[in-house]
Amino acid sequence: MSNGQISAPRELKHFKIVVLDGGILLAGFDYAGKPVNVLNVDSMSEWQKIVRYAQESDSIRGVVLVSAKDGNFCAGADLEQMHQAQLQRSFHEMEQLVVTAHMLFDEMERSAKPYVAAVEGACLGGGLELALACHLRIASTHPKTCFALPEVKLGILPGFGGTQRLPRLIGVPAALEMITTGKTLFPRQALRMKLIEGMVTSLPSGVRTLEAIQRETLVESAIAQARALASAPAKRTPLPVSVRFFSLPGIRGLVCRYTRGQVIARGRHFYPAPLRAIEAVGKGLGQSVLEGSLTVEKPRLMELMADPVSSHLVELFLAGEKVKRNAPMVPASAGRIGVLGAGLMGSQIAGQLAEKGHGVVLRDVSSDILANAVGRIHKAQMAQVRKRIILPSEMRYRMMRVAPTIQLKDVSPSSLVIEAVSEKLDVKRAVLAEFEAAAPSDAIFATNTSSYTLADIAAKAVHPERCVGLHFFNPVAKMQLVEVVRAPFTSDSALKQARSLARRLGKFPLVVNDGPGFLVNRILSRYLAEAVILVGEGIPFSRIDRVAKNFGMAVDSGHPMGPLELLDLIGLSVGLHVLTSLTVLGARIESREALLRTLLPEKGPPVRFWKAGRENPQALNAVAMYRQAHPSEAGVLSDDVIHDRLFLPMVDEAVRCLHDKIVEEPWQVDFALTYGIGFPAFRGGLLGWAGRTMGHEQIREKLEFLSKSYGTRFEPSPELSDRRWCAPRAA
User: Fold this and answer.
1) Which tens digit of pLDDT belongs to each residue from 521-553?
2) Given this structure, which CATH class describes domain 521-726?
3) Catalytic residues, which ones?
4) Which CATH superfamily does the domain covering 337-515 fall into?
5) Dihedral through CA 628, CA 632, CA 636, CA 639, nearest 10?
6) Mind spelling out the 3-state secondary structure of 296-361?
7) 319-336 per-position pLDDT tens digit
8) Is residue 159 within 8 Å of 303, Cβ to Cβ?
9) What CATH number was assigned to the domain covering residues 15-305?
10) Could you state, in order of their start, the residue ranges of all structural domains in the chain?
11) Global pTM?
């Protein structure tokens, strides 16, 4: 029972509170010691005290929750705490946290006093579930404001009531799509879907104190809404007709079955989390929110949390955080960033720079190529307008940031340029020489090469210390990894600027040392080369790709892809160029140039392995002609042998990369291949998978068998005997 005189909670470490006129309690979430707000035992305990104080104090009429951190409302559950529980196989504390969250959020939801979430910045996972427990949600148009339930990407499901509240708010179909894909919504999309009730154009105060935050338009609006709700008599708002319709048991069941089919088509049965989430939604909606949360959602969450798949995915996420932390932000270069070369990669890089607020000078020697590049950038931005991610006005601002030119003098004032011209060494050297002649002596030259070493390109440079590699992956907008390449002569300043730029683009800037193929392409070459050799032996395209897809290659993207499909995507001419250039590594890299040449006619486009989802008859004919000229007998190959021939050379090459100091740690290899080529994340990375499932002795034995049976390219590296590459680890 309230006595009206209850004292406010003291010694709060992660929240700041103040009671405003009209009895509105403003709570600023500011988790101490972390750059983002997280929900764990400490922060949830403090929030519980605040809720109890608001409930029991007669002077409090409503609560507004806001973040005191710039660009982050709440990132969700504390994954470091969760991963420790997974490593120790002790989940009691996590289970208690989940139960506390369910009870606390239910108390908020049932409260006669309104709770309003003023969302600015990323509102993710448990943070969104916290906002869902509030009576009203208002968001700002801050560039970082977004909403998502990304738990399935961590091998779990929303565990703080998200599978129960979200379908009741936006309907079962939309909720299932958000939950099973982890897709991100931006404020305009969220408003249209009724995930939020209001959207406010608001500029952050800069100083994130409660006194300053109160004057922000977003918070002022939230406070006004809380006062209005507190003054109005409580009345139950009926659910929209569409939400009620899809909540009917029969209709709900149909939607759940359809979504299950979609999930299996995207990711097969490799990932249990989306399927368990569908079950939680389907079964929980027949109960109250609290009952569904405790009896349906929670057991499935705890089961998934204990699954090794979740442990691998959480470890991968934490590795990404480590990569970002290792790339400290430095002030952006003054003026526009130059992009040299307006082909496919150059135009994509320029588009990403403009999208993130950078002015870009896009230079090419051909006006036609420039026109096509600007057209590609415009098309990509229009797609975001159609999806209501941005307004047409924002698209116009982005396009205005791109300045196409054929004049090198327009690029020369740039303090950083990214070279993305054709993969010809003499062309790249010529472009570097032109740039050095026109640019300031401290300007940074970042090459996007995929097949030449940085040392090759900068061999004749006047200022090699300002040369660095920025190796983006295609498609640039989707691929999160960027290899930041460091040669012995690369200056610390150039490296820092390159890493910082990649991070500002939202990428993972992984530093790799210079060498043929760097890290990802060097390891990938063994996989692609062996697939081509298998083709030359007469193994059907479908069988080669099926073995890889059954292993899980690229399944995380929703588009399972085998090595031949990947070659079609990369382009056979590019693939041949990369494989040929990497033969400098030794006889273990076989380019099979004669076979690939049969698929690269002098006139016309390359012949793809696949056409309209079927083996391309033209490619089958070309391979048949090659086999007549180069007869070979592969014998009868089992799927297991094909699997070993595809993947074990990758393990061997990865160990060689560690020995050559391309990177220092095994987790860096696993991280790069997961984000660079779609190695299945649920297997815990290439080296993690190999170490857990086989170990160094068995891998050596298998490679020696393959070497005797199929060629010396399989001879194992002596470094395989070093057990450190396969030792248990946590990123």
Assistant:
1) 999 999 999 999 999 999 999 999 999 999 999
2) mainly alpha
3) 450, 471, 483, 521
4) NAD(P)-binding Rossmann-like Domain (3.40.50.720)
5) -90
6) HHHHHHHHHHCCHHHHHHHHHHHHHHHHHHCCCCCCCCCCCEEEECCCHHHHHHHHHHHHCCCCEE
7) 999 999 888 888 776 679
8) no
9) 3.90.226.10
10) 15-305, 337-515, 521-726
11) 0.90
